[in-house]
Amino acid sequence: MTSSDLAATRYLAELRNALQRYRVPQHEEILFDLKNHISEAMGSGKSLEAVIAAFGPPDLLARAYAMELLINPPKASKIAGAVRLVKILSLVVAGGFFSLCITFTLALLGLSLLAAGPALIVGGVLQSAGQHPWWINTGPLTPLAVIAIGLLASLIGAGVCWVLWRYVRMTARTLRKILPGPML
Amino acid sequence: MSETDSTSQLRRGVIELCVLRLLNDKASYGYEVVTTLERLGPLATGENTLYPLLRRLKSDKYLETFEVESPSGPTRQYYRLTQRGQQRLKSLQAEWTGLAQAVERCLTHGAKS
Question: Where are the domains of chain B?
Answer without folding.
Answer: 3-112
